[in-house]
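The data are quoted verbatim for reference:
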Amino acid sequence: MVHGKFKQWLSKSLVVTIALALSGCGLGARAAKSGSQAPSKLQVVAFWANDVSTPLTYLYSHPHAITDLAPFWYSVDAYGGLSAHVNTTILQQAQKAHIPITPLVNDGTGTQAFLDNPVTRVAAARNIADMVGKMHFQGVNIDFEPAHTRVVNQLSGFMIDLRDFLPRSDTITIDIVPHSGGAYNYGVLGREVNQFILMSYDEHDDGSLEGPVAGMPWVENILKRLMTVVPASKIDLGIALYGYSWPIGSTNAQTIPYNAVTPAMDQHAVWSQQYQETYARYDTSSGPRIAWWESLQGMNQKILLAKQDHLAGVALWHIGYANNAVMQLLLHQIGSQP
């Protein structure tokens, strides 16, 4: 679903219409702030999860819009073993399109218990490295998401082991939870990790009252904090390709992929100057609702922020929620050529 002025972006005069759209929705100030120099090419990590069944047609049509595909295909168990749920169709299509793959590996236990035992911790690192080598992947994305400082030393030890087991040419990225209570030792991790992916989304989500998914003031604050301990050149800014819809007054939110924005949401869409995100109040058969989501305007804002702060790139959660308009935005702003 393409909304508002950004429907123009699909026309042949793409560059002209983007400039007009930016000036029309309050983005010109940030674009000007980023300077007049030609934009440098950003890294674009495209996550993928199996909560969608549609093929990644738009990605295969525009493979140069991203630099890495990070599908959620592996989980670590309590013994350091790996469970795999590889989508062979996506694997073959990505290989055919020559898209580098850095699969996401998460903590299947939800407790990081395997990190507490040196034996299972080393086993996990070795098994991940063996998987990357066997599958000829570009590298790996680590998504353990520790919630507090209990495993800060164990996580650092694991990343050291993983780096030792992998060739130096293989990429290691790690996902950073914005409010982790100090669970990351950036001084150690920075020597082992190629990129830190800031999960700059879900400011409001299922379980909270309605509000922006990634309001710009919140994003700028958490990014600024991370940049005090990590060089900008090693940070990828997370961008949501989705939103949430709440019944008025409820904390029970429904996820709305960008490519599934409803006609009612689109019809009542309003751009928030305060939060630099789109929202809508609308009626349904079950009652009034309010939705916040990252529209093309919001995605564009995050890309411009990454450029302004000279970050390594951006990371999209997730590419299964994209459509052709998203891919065209990436191709234009990132500077890739099809």
Notes: The chain has eleven helices and 14 strands. Residues 152 and 185 are 6 Å apart (CA to CA). The first helix runs from residue 14 to 24.
